[in-house]
Amino acid sequence: MSYSKELRIASLAVQRATILTQKVFHEKVKGTLSKDDKSPVTIGDFGAQALIIQAIKYNFPEDEVVGEEEASTLREKPDLTQQIWELVQGAKLGIHENSSEVEKELGGPLEGPGQMLNAIDAGNSSGGSKGRFWALDPIDGTKGFLRGGQYAVCLALIVDGEVKVGVLGCPNLPVDDKAPLSADVSDAGAEKHQRGVLFSAVYGQGATSQPLGTDDLLPHQSIHMKDPPIREATFCESVEAGHSSHGDQAMIAGKLGITEPSVRMDSQAKYGSVARGAGDLYLRLPVSATYVEKIWDHAAGWLIVTEAGGVVTDAEGNKVDFGQGRTLAKNKGIVATPKSLHQEVIGVVKSVLSAKQA
Fold it and tell me: What is the pLDDT of residues 321-334, one digit of tens each?
């Protein structure tokens, strides 16, 4: 199956959602709510989820969605709901006031706040190993988003437990695939680069990047991981120490002979950066025995790196299993590398982690 329609709709839906997230940031509308996992959630999360799920349900009405957000809090806050609704109304593809043809492909505008809330709540699938569902993170890297750093709008189609389509919208990454890896838009020299990139992949068909636009999709190009000597490799890791063990990762880098400091950035922008060769390794090692990764934090990035010629496993070298529900219940940690380096890196990862447990 080519999944050409799924890829197009997913790419357009993510592109439309980034219009909303950028508007939220630039207008400094950063009202946050508290979630059970203590991570901040912005109104951009809710708006982007509504827009993407509406597009999926319009084109693939039988598909389910595993989404990060749900609308119970919004239903109790009509003022906040109205604020999000106004942003959703303004997020359209097309350079004219009237919706463009591509906007119509996504189902056109939502009809009102009630339909918006219902769309948000439609992301309640439990996932699993059978059937079709989409894994959605409307703003991955919320803290990066709030400070003007890296974040991503992430969408992946999973069929019978296997990721088939992956799309990442990264508004603050440079369009140029050869631009040096930079953790933040404020880094020296970063302003020289046009920003906003859309990464995508279909299983067995390779990975691509293209500039984010505001109408139809712009031309894309193939991306590939680099294959450097291990000592010259650059590795990415999460900014948040609560998501990834910085100390273990520094020790692993030392044992591999990597001398360059890590680049810390939020979100699946790390996957996109590694896939196009701006970085080489992505390490996300478990911070505790009980921490379980969510599928929406990895599905799209996993496919894009894999299709760009890389290997992504857990910290034990096992296949990442997206068929266990809403979490990666059978996996601990994430290691993404070029194929030629994976066995060496996994060996060191296992050594460092087992020494801790001894």
Answer: 999 999 999 999 99
3-state SS, one letter per residue, for 143-184: HHHHCCCCCEEEEEEEECCEEEEEEEEEEEEECCCCCCCCCC
AA letter at 294: K
Pairing, β 235-237 against β 281-284: parallel
3-state secondary structure 12-60: HHHHHHHHHHHHHHHCCCCCEEECCCCCEEEHHHHHHHHHHHHHHHHHC
Active-site residue flag, 73: no
Q: Which residue out of 142, 234, 306, 337 is catalytically annotated?
A: 142
Residue with tokens 């992946």: 156
Q: Which of 345, 279, 336 is nearest to 305 (CA)?
A: 336
Residue by residue, DSSP assigns 217-232 as: PPP-EE-------GGG
Nearest to 239 by CA among 156, 141, 168: 141
pTM over 0.90: yes
Query: Per DSSP, what are the bridge partners of residue 210?
Result: 198
| Residue 142 designated active-site | yes
Q: What region, left, alpha or beta, does residue 288 occupy, with left being phi > 0 and alpha being psi -120 to 50 degrees?
A: beta
Could you tell me the end-to-end alpha-carbon distance of the chain, in angstroms, rounded to an integer? 48
Q: Is 240 exposed, middle or buried (0-12, 13-18, 19+ CB in 10 A)?
A: middle
Which of these is catalytic: 42, 45, 234, 248? 45
How many Cα atoms sit within 13 Å of 159 on the Cβ side? Answer: 11
CA atoms within 13 A on the CB side of 155: 30
261 vs 253: CA distance, rounded Å:
9
Least confident of 12-16, 93-97, 249-253, 261-265: 93-97
Taking 90 as the threshold, does the pLDDT of residue 189 lie above it?
Answer: no
